[in-house]
Amino acid sequence: MSSASRRSSATRKTPPLPKHHIRPTTPFSTTSFPKHPPSPATTPPSKVKENVTVTVRFRPLNGRELSKGDEVAWYADGDYTLRNEFNPDIAYSFDRVFGPATTTRHVYDVAAQHVVSGAMEGVNGTVFAYGVTSSGKTHTMHGEQKSPGIIPLAVKDVFGIIQETPGREYLLRVSYLEIYNEVINDLLNPTGQNLKIREDSQGTYVEGIKEEVVLSPAHALSLIASGEEHRHVGSNNVNLLSSRSHTIFTVTIESSPGEDQGEEVTLSQLHLIDLAGSESSKTETTGLRRKEGSYINKSLLTLGTVISKLTDGKSTHVPYRDSKLTRLLQSSLSGHGRVSLICTVTPASSNTEETHNTLKFAQRSKHVEIKASQNKILDEKSLIKKYQREISNLKQELQQLKSGMVEKQNPVVPSQEDLVNLKLQLEAGQIKLQSRLEEEEQAKAALMGRIQRLTKLILVSTKNTIQPNILEKPSHRRRHSFGEDELAYLPDRKREYMVDDDAGSIDSELSVDGRSDATNLDEIVKDFKRSKRRGMLGWFKLKVKSYITLSYVPFDLHLICYAQ
Ligand SMILES: Nc1ncnc2c1ncn2[C@@H]1O[C@H](COP(=O)(O)OP(=O)(O)OP(=O)(O)O)[C@@H](O)[C@H]1O
């Protein structure tokens, strides 16, 4: 093969070699998860073994490599095999090998979609990109506006799955952290520095990490973008924007069949990880960069050791504790949930050795066994159930408050004498009445606000086929439309997201009252102004009429007080 033709592509189609297909979806069973003890009410786990999905993605030779005369040293030989150009005996097979022309969308469909859909069904999932500096990890995980990466595609998919799952309610929370020089920083909360890893009976977790409930893809992406602003990035001689830290973006997904149904809630975590790249002596660095590089290399070395120990079949001790990265990945690597490893490589001959090391790591990782199983929790442990119960209680409370107010307003036609007495009573008790009315109004507004806030947090599909009549009345749930625009993912964009106003289905129910109140109030104000013109007697005549026609008497009382 000539240099020129080698340079043109790192992909070749030759007769098929033994193929390694992506494993079929594993039937779900039950397991536990960090921070949430397993429910005794769950069915016994029927764990089915599968392996980590391991794929390799080539990036094209870049300008720097071409200008220094680099050749293609490694190439994709079909969809599953990767070969060394100069030594045909060196070949590796993986679940999939992506040539340099492959789109990230395709990588997502093959390497990440099954992990994301599993997470939506309660199976923990981890997708991570591994490779040397400048091999394309960030390009793969984050992408750019024109070519969104695995993280934005997964976020969009999560909301798409909610939309395609009528009759189920979801609550999503996200967190975003970096491990920089072996220190954990919260990227969603700049004051959350040097956070500690804690362990409970269910595994490791980061103490004090901020979790934000997300309401739409744009909302989640804006959080990532704002988190990215705090991530440590710097340039080395091969990458102008080299990641100096490992990042873990976690989506916690709770789902339940609905407010009044007894079925357990499923809970899972989806970890999307962009590792920093290992650096060799060729990566010329000094000072701070070198220090960062040594932390990065050390933690990746520990990751390699952990993978080796997990797969050699004889180790009794796995050194998860030797790095923050492996401690946080402990639950995933020790088999709780689905894992997809995307190794990124350059075909460049100048990087032959580094690419070979990545491939050896990928090969070992293939033998890590995992048991994908579904997490279920009891109602009381679940945030979504807590919110659902709270909404229902608040609605009852609101109803009681409203009916209490209406009872007090029963329109009775008073006699002339009653009216005089009433006026005297009103004069005596006007301040008390006024403040009580204000209190009731405030309580009502507070209840409405709480119901509205809680309702917005729970996500449902607009395709509600379970209750078709729901379309006939204003919805009580937040509605979403998940367009491509949601992926307009600008890292420099500040948090300009919403809690927007399309949500307000509960508004529509509540605003019915709001509008009628306002209408009555307007009328009363008009009456009041007219009566002022006519003098007090006119006002009293008018009020007698108002008592009969208006149902919302407290406002009348209120105005009478002012009218005196
Ligand atoms: N598959 C690809 N197609 C086109 N360009 C790519 C691809 N992969 C990476 N690149 C480009 O190569 C450069 C380096 O990629 P990237 O920053 O993703 O590397 P990295 O592995 O994350 O590096 P580091 O570990 O230093 O952060 C970027 O300019 C990126 O746009």
UniProtKB/TrEMBL annotation:
CDD domains with a match to the protein in the record: KISc_CENP_E
Keyword ATP-binding: yes
Domain of life: Eukaryota
Residue ranges the record marks as coiled coil: 370-404
Sites where the protein binds ATP: 131-138
Gene3D superfamilies named among the record's database cross-references: Kinesin motor domain
Keyword set includes Coiled coil: yes
Domain Kinesin motor per the UniProt entry, residue ranges: 51-368
Signal peptide limits: none
Sequence similarity: Belongs to the TRAFAC class myosin-kinesin ATPase superfamily. Kinesin family.
UniProt protein name: Kinesin-like protein
